[in-house]
C-alpha cells in the first residue's frame, strides 16, 4: 500500500512531539557567583584620582577663587598679561620644534629598523635604549648636558682646543631656550620610536610586493601607499610629543636657573617669588591654562589615533 506524499507520512511513522525537559532555574541571590574582575582597576583608578583628577580640581579651585575662597576672574584675567602670553608662546614653539625634530628623526630610525632582524642585536639594543632614554630627564639629563656641552664641558673644551670651534661665542645659550630645546629632543626621539614603530612595523610586505608587481617603484610605494597609511599614526605621535614637551618641567628647572621663559617655570616663579604677593593663585590660573592646552592636544591625539587604528586592526 502506497501513501501519497501530500497525505503525509504513514500512520506507523507518525511520532508525537516530545516536550522539552524543564531546565534548572538559574541561581539567584546569594547563589549567583560574583564578578570581582573590576578590582584589577582599583590601582589604576587610585592613580588617576590622586595624580590627575585631584591636581586638576586644585588648579581649578586656586585659579577661579582668591585666597579667601571668593569666586573671582582676576586670576584668569592675568593670563592676558603680555609676560604670561610670552611664556605660553615660548612653551608652544619649543614644543612644536622639539616635537617636529623628534618625530622626523624618530620616524627615520623606525624606517631603518624595518630592515633589521627582529631578534637581532641592533634592533633589540635600539628598543631597549629607546625605552630607557624616553624616561631620561630632569636633573640627570641636565647634568649630562652641562658635563658634555656646557661652557666647560668635555665636548666644548675638545672642540675649542682641537678644532678652534667656540660653541659659546655668543653667550651661554645652553642655559636658555635653545639648551632646553636640545634637552627635550634627547627624550623626544626615543619616545617617537616607541610610539611610532608599532604602526610602521604593521605595514604588510605584500603591499610593497603588489605595488612592485604592478610596475611601481619603492619610492612610489612610500609616496602613494606607505606615507598616506602612516600619516594618522605620525600625526598622533607628533601630538603626543608636543604634549610631552609642553608639560615638561624637571629638565627645564634643572637647566635654567634664572628666568621664567616657559609656562612650567612661570608657575614655579608664581609659587616661590616674593614679588607676587597678593597673587598667589596666579599659579593655579597658569596651571589651568596648561591643562586646557594639553586637554585639547590629547583630545586631538585620541581622535587621530582612533582613525589610525582602523587599518591597523
Order of helices and strands: HHHHHHHHHHHH
Number of helices: 12
Q: Point out poorly predicted stretches.
A: 1-14
Q: Roughly how much helix do the residues carry, as a percent range?
A: 55-70%
Give Rg in angstroms. Answer: 31 Å
Structural class, please? mainly alpha
Mean pLDDT: 82
Task: Give a short account of the largest sheet.
Answer: none
Shape: globular
How many β-strand stretches?
0
Structure described in brief:
This protein has twelve helices and no strands.
Protein model, in words:
It is a single chain. This protein has 313 residues and is an all-alpha fold. 65% of the residues lie in helices and 0% in strands. It has 12 helices and no strands. The protein is globular, with a radius of gyration of 31 Å. 26% of the residues are buried. Residues 1-14 have low confidence and may be disordered.
SSE inventory with pairings:
Layout lengths: L41 H23 L9 H4 L4 H32 L7 H13 L5 H11 L4 H10 L13 H25 L3 H9 L4 H29 L3 H6 L7 H10 L9 H31 L1
Protein traits:
313 residues; mainly alpha; 12 helices; 0% strand; globular; disordered N terminus
